[in-house]
Specification:
Blueprint lengths: L1 H22 L14 H8 L3 H12 L5 E2 L2 E2 L5 H8 L1 H6 L5 H11 L7 H10 L18 H20 L3 E10 L20 H4 L4 E8 L3 E8 L5 H15 L4 E5 L13 H4 L2 E5 L10 H21 L6 H10 L3 H14 L1
Parallel strand pairs: 3-6, 6-7
Antiparallel strand pairs: 1-2, 3-4, 4-5
Helix pairs in contact: 1-2, 1-3, 2-3, 12-13
Length: 340
């Protein structure tokens, strides 16, 4: 019994001391002047910040959030839908998590959410910081034909697959001095360094193709931009690789692909060109493959440059393409057909 009395006495003493340090009175009001911060009082009395804040708020009888006289702890589905809505994320773009909690409280004044709770809510629902995509909207003269182009491309692909033709998705990609990571882990007050002369060297243009069944099929690496002659050589190599099986080649509307010198070669090689909708790289599955290839290439390149090791550009490009599995290519194809 005496032990409990001692504990209660000790608690009352700490409560009184905390209030005196904070307000210079043991019975503060909402108009009382504040002298010391919660953190300073916690250090003096050997308490936690939360304990000091609880003592002071309880003395003032001002809980952080009220609803019908009761403290509100959980968010309703309406609030969760608001926080996770894509429109809300767009309107709050550029804001920190702390600023987002403030904005939320301004909309729902009887609710609050902590920064850590908002972060956990985002992660639980698959919301994370992602790279912002730069779109190139189609010109006004192209927009009326966009839907028609998508329908035509999807119909041609469906008919070719039903006829038993091999569907090949083709495009070109360039590896330049910009194909390099610009941010990497480093110690405090230090930065990783690379030799600038090694950065501003090398240019490769790559023609590549994938199929849903076999993944990456054939790549051609060269040191200059692709022209009609280079593309014709690639088409002949593609035909030699697949024998006499009819091919439907899905690609963009690059001038090289539609060059007059190439038009008679398509029927001669038993290749049917199928052109993607204009200004729609996302509907060509090989673009997603290129994104992964460039990420792998950039990581390897920065590792070699930072450690002053030799870097064979052609071999590393081929190595990056070898990491792409047929399952990944098949998933990219399914996603692109869904977008079409």
């Amino acid at each position: 019994m005496k032990y409990k009395e001692m504990l209660w006495s000790k608690r009352d003493e700490l409560r009184t001391a905390a209030l005196l340090l904070r307000y210079r009175t043991s019975e503060p009001t909402s108009e009382s002047r504040k002298f010391l911060s919660y953190r300073r009082i916690a250090a003096i009395l050997n308490l936690t910040h939360a304990e000091v804040e609880h003592i002071c708020r309880k003395a003032l009888n001002t809980p952080t959030a009220l609803s019908d006289g009761k403290r509100v702890r959980k968010l309703d589905q309406e609030h969760l839908d608001f926080l996770l809505n894509q429109r809300t994320l767009e309107q709050w773009s550029g804001l920190t998590l702390q600023e987002r909690t403030v904005r939320f409280h301004r909309v729902y004044t009887d609710k609050r959410i902590a920064v850590t709770s908002l972060r956990r809510l985002y992660l639980k629902n698959g919301i994370k910081r992602k790279k912002i995509r730069q779109e190139k909207p189609p010109p006004n003269e192209v927009r009326p034909h966009y839907k028609e182009d998508c329908v035509t491309a999807l119909r041609e692909l469906t008919e070719a697959k039903a006829a038993g033709q091999l569907l090949i998705y083709l495009d070109e990609i360039n590896f330049t001095k910009r194909s390099l990571l610009t941010r990497e882990w480093s110690s405090k007050n230090t930065n990783l360094t690379v030799d600038q002369e090694n950065v501003y060297t090398g240019y490769r243009s790559v023609i590549a193709a994938i199929t849903e069944e076999r993944g990456v099929n054939l790549i051609r690496i060269q040191e200059q931009a692709v022209n009609a002659e280079d593309f014709l050589v690639y088409l002949k190599a593609l035909r030699a690789k697949y024998g006499k099986r009819p091919i439907t080649l899905f690609m963009d509307r690059l001038n090289v692909h539609k060059a007059n010198s190439l038009k008679p070669w398509y029927p001669n090689l038993d290749i049917t060109p199928c052109f993607n909708a204009r200004y729609s790289p996302e509907t060509n599955p090989i673009e997603a493959v290129f994104s992964k290839v460039k990420a792998i290439f950039s990581r390897k390149r920065v590792n070699c440059l930072v450690n002053r090791m030799a870097f064979d550009m052609d071999n590393e490009i081929r190595a990056a393409f070898r990491t792409i599995t047929p399952e990944h290519c098949a998933a990219c194809v399914r996603k692109s057909l869904h977008l079409l």
